[in-house]
Protein 1
Amino acid sequence: MYNGNELRIIQSLQKDIEDELNRIGLLYRFFSRTKSESSIIKKYEKEPNKYSEDGKKIQDLFGVRIILYFPDDLFIAQKTLEKLFEIESKTVDETTANLFAATRCNYVFKLPEVLSNDSVLLKKYSYIDTTFEVQFRTILSEGWHEVEHDLRYKCKEDWVEHNDLSRALNGIYASLETSDWGIMKLFEDLAYRNYKSSAWSAMLRNKLRLRMDDKLDEKIISIINEKELGKKFYRIDRDRLLSLMLDYNIDIPINLNNIIYLCNYFFIKSTELQDIAPALIMKKLTDADEKFNKNTILASK
């Protein structure tokens, strides 16, 4: 049975995390859970000498899984959570050229005090840590991880003396990893074709791969064509843009028009585009820019 306090805590964590991921427009799926009291007790009793008040503690009373559409979003999603919460530990496996194996990307964050104080189970069991676990996956690898966890990790004895099949299962993961990058390359190629045909809405949508399905305003399209700005927008570095949105705490609705105004403000510097930008959007951008620069100066002193 689940405690209402624990459910409110995981719901609060989910809201805080999703608000930040949505702010920069990432495409993702989100799963969260809290362990029941019986599940915690079962985990403790399974290895009674493993967890204690003064030693190693159970760190996954609360768990989050973030499933990204594209592999290059793993880093920005991790950076997003690192800004929100204090890192307790992380396990990020390095890939190797000659080994087929799943790579872990798991973080343990400190639970904000305002939330940990509300937990009934944390007060009741001293061997539970005031932390929560976050797993990062890509959408293609997620299904493989589910199969591997339930049918190999939990049933290790079934795989004894079957290393060839275990390697084959890892090989399937390797093919999914290749497909992850293949899909990303496909959208890069599509964005280039959109650029060559001057399809600016499609180019931005497929280059940036963010949660937006609208179309550019005709005034913006006219300026891009008349001032030959298409190549400049095409050459904007996606990772740099997303990092800027995160670091500057840019908080504007994510749509194609606003992305144009954002890119223009920080990178392109077209007076024609600036002149048609909504006053509220420009104020949010200038305020974010000034605040970031002020904080940078203060941090350097």
Note: The longest helix spans residues 163-196.
Protein 2
Amino acid sequence: MSDSINRGPVAPKDPTKKRPFFYIMKDKEIFGAPQPDGSFAHFLYMDMGRLIDAAKLTGNVTDEDMVECMKSRAGLQKMVHSIGVSVSSADADKSVKFVVEMYPVTPGDEVTNIEALVPMDDMEMVIDLSKVDWKDGDRELGQIRYVFDAEGIQGTTTVKFYLNDGFEAPEQPAEEPVDFEGAAYKAMIQKSLMQTGNESRIKKVLEKAKNGQDVTLGFIGGSITQGAGAIPINEKCYARVFYEDFAKRYMKGGECIFVKAGVGGTPSELGMIRFERDVLRDGAAKPDLIVIEFAVNDEGDETQGVCYESLVRKALALPWKPAVVLLFAVFSNDWNLQDRLSPVGRNYCLPMVSVLDAVSPQFPLLPGKGRVISKNQFFYDVYHPSNLGHQIMADCLSNLIDTVSEDAVEVAEEKALEEIAPVIGADFEHIELLDRKELPALKDKFNIVEVTEGSFDQKDTDLQAVEMDKDIEMIPEFPHNWCHEESTDGTRPFKMTLTCKRLLLIFKDSASATHGTAEVFVDGKFIRDADPHVNGWTHCNAVVLINEAEAKPREVLIQMKEGHQNKKFTILGFGVE
């Protein structure tokens, strides 16, 4: 047999000298999740400053000229010579389609898509950007996605930007593994406990678990509660990890039931409306413990905390008296809204857990000098935790439960909810969801004497969808909607007459140029434009129309704005009290 078999070439060429680079991703976990179109993909969004944040977080970029270049496609083309991408997976004999997609200046413009079939064997593929046919409609790098051949394929990816001449790469940071068993880690977790509050409701949950009874754990929040950044999202999210830990260590024979209701990009303003459907499952679920996580979602809350406190009171008022835990997540800029929202927890003497208090103080420290985990290790992107970050969030919740479990002090009697005045406001604590499904049940309660659909007589199925509970399949939010389809006669408005004192509209956001703006009137008075392009993605948007002390008859009219009559608009529902 020839001894040349499996040998390299006799005279291999000298290696091509690599350019200076910085990371925008490093060993980031990816997963082939089922999509509504039948594909299996993983999305990494880079628009709205997220590319810059990734470069700062992972690539140690601080140079302002380089930051400026990442704000536009033209700047990116000026700075980046080529993109290096590698994927490592147990399915090393397979490949994954790597896609870099630009977002348009104007919705509907033709944009650049850069595609490459990348082997999942951890070998780097370098994509030369000088060979790309750039489109004039490009605004900025919008997303990077990985399209797999089958569901459930898991791996890690690293993406580098190799730089053109004239740009210098920053030093790329090295990291050490997280020591989950070390004293420093445990001390960090303990810092997350802001207060145990009145422990009676948590102790009741623990007693049920100890006695072999069924226990239901419920979670409501934004994308972090949905599981964003966790790979796989339905298994490694903080809610699932905490649930598994609770079931393993505290359940003594009963069933531990898991209810997860996180919806990405949405605040407590929407959460308080969908609470009964998504958390209580229209009466089918009775969570014994409810974790509320909106501390990084409520910046845009037009009520500045009233919706949040209304949701908290809704949960506290349930007749079976569940334990209510306030969880404050954190963004990579060490920000959340716990200063605004923690007074609610203190007002009702609730358990509060702050991930910010645990991790942010140690981020600036050096390895071996007090740092337990780096920002790049904790965060998947600027907004969402990685698997490590989700594990830490779960450990922070478990620390609360362990502390209460070990506390032998006699618990003080809980003050009745009706005796506690709101600290911010609770205007919407009795708000209810009104859509096509709930309309018959609420007609008499709110004296709904007329609903004229007009040209809003279709149902939209292209909706924001999320992974609920333990499922990887995505469930659409607000499917019982009223939709004005593209190219229909937009001159026929939606009309509804009802008696209420508070009213919110939920409508669908979209980036598509086929969607248009609707005008909202109440009692003949113009209230607002509902523009689906403000947020720019398929997303549920709740806005306040009326907030008054007295209930009285109202006439609601929604019509397409002049020039938008042949565009699409979806009324997802209303919040009404």
Note: Residues 432-576 form a domain with the Jelly Rolls fold (CATH 2.60.120.260).
